[in-house]
């Protein structure tokens, strides 16, 4: 049975806290759906689903800290019934049930709502829908009549996605309460019976976003959510300037109290905790891993000219920077020189069958994160540029995805933007190598017996002497250099 597990953000991470579930038992999920948010001290990670199915048991509640690898929840496979078992397809769903697929909640709910008006009078007095208490609560907050919503879950169960689709499609309002009329006090009458005050539904938001908004003094009602169904995430809170959040005064008081922001501006992570994690990982690496170091200066004149030609016909937002070429060449070299692509575990080297490239990202408030670009050797420079923008942006906003935390097989640190020529990295054990790039600068060099000025970059290699020797490291650097002489083949 498929499972969600606590992801790892590097070898120095041992545990994480489940911040917020975005799904509930019975919800239908698909590959790529974000199902939970996990806090790892360094960043909040959006845990993605890698299977299609229905959420089974939630094994770890919100707010609990558990070790890396702990099963957080299970997924139940959706059995595909045969045509005979499925029976005749209902009106408006021709062929879909017969094929055994689960109808898309948005389509199913929207279609039912459009056609529901003519059948509303035929609904039985006793509710015939299936919904959990949470779904009933969400429907009540949104003012949705569950009797008018068609469930897309197992056995017709109504799930969160059906409520979201009903809201967007304008489902019939539940006839249980009437909204308070302006100027009429709660409990008074307007000639049509008692009018009861109905509290406006609370905005959908992750637990972390709510805590962050409270710390920054941001009113969630004023935000637009970027999550599923308009749910507010932490990144939405970051982009909104802090505004006072009124706290209801005591009963009988006409005045309000303004909450004082208590968190750091921008919701920065605990820098002391980040420094402690970095210190522990680097100390362990330098004490236990016998490093050796190599460096080379690579002429990138051909690569820079090729890049200039490509960017000339490319929109500004999609242009490729030299770093993307350097990462492409590193990933392909790692695939060819496999003895540097893998991990040292239990006193032996274990090569990795795939090249997952760790990219060291410096955070604006200090510290580093090392998200991963999976299968980096298969990416073209353009796709590498897209991946690089994504992981750097998510790392610096502390909103990594679980796909960014795949265990890297080799890492790259590129400090060229700081204007330095070379950097010798510390190996992120249990990896056995880290590649460093300085800034690409014009330097005098010998070309054809004459002195010329050409763009060059210093590449360094820090490698684990237990897994390889200097000759192998030199072959790796030579491979990177040769690849950069033929950028059109990357």
Structure overview:
With 490 residues, the protein is α+β, with helices and mostly antiparallel strands. The protein has 11 helices and 22 strands. Helix 2 (105-119) crosses helix 4 (160-169), helix 9 packs across helix 10 and helix 9 crosses helix 11. The longest helix has 18 residues, at 271-288. The protein is elongated.
Note the total helix count. 11
Q: Main β-sheet, in a few words? A: 7 strands, mixed
Give the helix level as a range of percent. 25-40%
Shape: elongated
Unreliable stretches: 82-126, 175-201, 241-268
Mean pLDDT score, rounded?
Answer: 74
Terminal CA distance: 39 Å
How big is the Rg? Answer: 28 Å
Query: How many beta-strand runs?
Result: 22
Write the layout of secondary structure elements.
Elements: E1 3-5, E2 15-21, E3 28-29, E4 34-39, E5 44-48, E6 53-58, E7 65-67, E8 71-76, H1 83-86, H2 105-119, H3 133-142, H4 160-169, H5 207-216, H6 234-238, E9 246-247, E10 257-258, H7 271-288, E11 291-299, H8 301-312, H9 322-336, E12 342-345, E13 348-351, E14 357-359, E15 361-362, E16 368-369, E17 372-373, H10 381-396, E18 399-401, E19 410-414, E20 433-437, E21 441-447, E22 450-464, H11 470-484
Parallel strand pairs: 5-18, 14-19, 19-20
Antiparallel strand pairs: 1-8, 2-4, 2-7, 3-6, 4-5, 6-8, 9-10, 11-22, 12-13, 14-17, 15-16, 20-22, 21-22
Helix pairs in contact: 2-4, 9-10, 9-11
């Amino acid at each position: 049975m498929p499972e969600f597990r606590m992801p790892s953000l590097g070898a120095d991470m041992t545990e994480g806290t489940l911040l917020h579930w975005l799904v509930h038992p019975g919800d239908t999920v698909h590959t790529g759906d974000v199902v939970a948010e996990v806090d790892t001290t360094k960043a909040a990670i959006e845990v993605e689903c890698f299977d299609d199915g229905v959420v089974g048991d939630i094994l770890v509640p919100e707010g609990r800290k558990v070790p890396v690898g702990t099963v957080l929840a299970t997924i139940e496979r959706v059995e595909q019934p045969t045509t005979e078992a499925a029976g005749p397809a209902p009106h408006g769903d021709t062929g879909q049930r017969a094929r055994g697929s689960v109808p898309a909640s948005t389509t199913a709910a929207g279609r039912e709502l459009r056609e529901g008006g003519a059948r509303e009078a035929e609904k039985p007095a006793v509710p015939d829908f299936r919904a959990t208490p949470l779904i009933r609560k969400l429907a009540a907050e949104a003012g949705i009549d569950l009797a008018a919503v068609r469930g897309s879950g197992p056995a017709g169960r109504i799930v969160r996605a059906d409520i979201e689709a009903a809201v967007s499609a304008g489902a019939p309002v539940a006839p249980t309460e009437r909204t308070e009329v302006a100027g009429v006090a709660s409990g008074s009458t307007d000639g049509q019976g008692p009018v009861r005050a109905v509290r406006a539904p609370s905005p959908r938001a992750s637990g972390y976003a709510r805590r962050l908004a409270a710390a920054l003094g941001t009113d969630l009602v004023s935000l637009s959510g970027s999550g599923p169904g308009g749910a507010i995430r932490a990144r939405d809170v970051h982009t909104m300037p802090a505004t006072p959040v009124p706290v209801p005064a005591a009963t009988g008081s006409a005045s309000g109290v303004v909450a004082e922001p208590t968190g750091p501006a921008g919701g920065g992570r605990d820098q002391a905790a980040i420094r402690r994690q970095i210190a522990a990982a680097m100390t362990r690496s330098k004490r236990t891993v016998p490093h050796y170091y190599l460096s080379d200066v690579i002429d990138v004149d051909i690569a820079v000219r090729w890049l200039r030609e490509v960017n000339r016909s490319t929109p500004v937002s999609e242009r490729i920077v030299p770093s993307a070429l350097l990462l492409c060449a590193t990933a392909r070299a790692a695939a060819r020189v496999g003895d540097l692509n893998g991990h040292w575990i239990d006193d032996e080297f274990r090569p990795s069958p795939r090249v997952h490239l760790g990219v060291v990202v410096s955070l604006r408030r200090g510290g580093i994160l090392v998200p991963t670009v999976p299968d980096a050797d298969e990416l073209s420079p353009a796709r590498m540029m897209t991946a690089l923008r994504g992981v750097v942006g998510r790392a610096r906003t502390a909103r990594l995805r679980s796909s960014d935390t795949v265990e890297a097989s080799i890492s790259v640190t590129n400090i060229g933007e700081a204007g330095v020529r070379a950097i010798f990295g510390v190996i992120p054990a249990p990896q056995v190598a880290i590649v460093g790039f300085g800034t690409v600068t014009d330097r005098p060099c010998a070309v054809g017996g004459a002195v010329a000025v050409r763009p060059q970059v210093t590449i360094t290699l820090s490698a684990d002497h237990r897994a390889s020797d200097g000759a192998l490291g030199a072959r790796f650097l030579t491979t990177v250099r040769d690849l950069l002489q033929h950028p059109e083949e990357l």
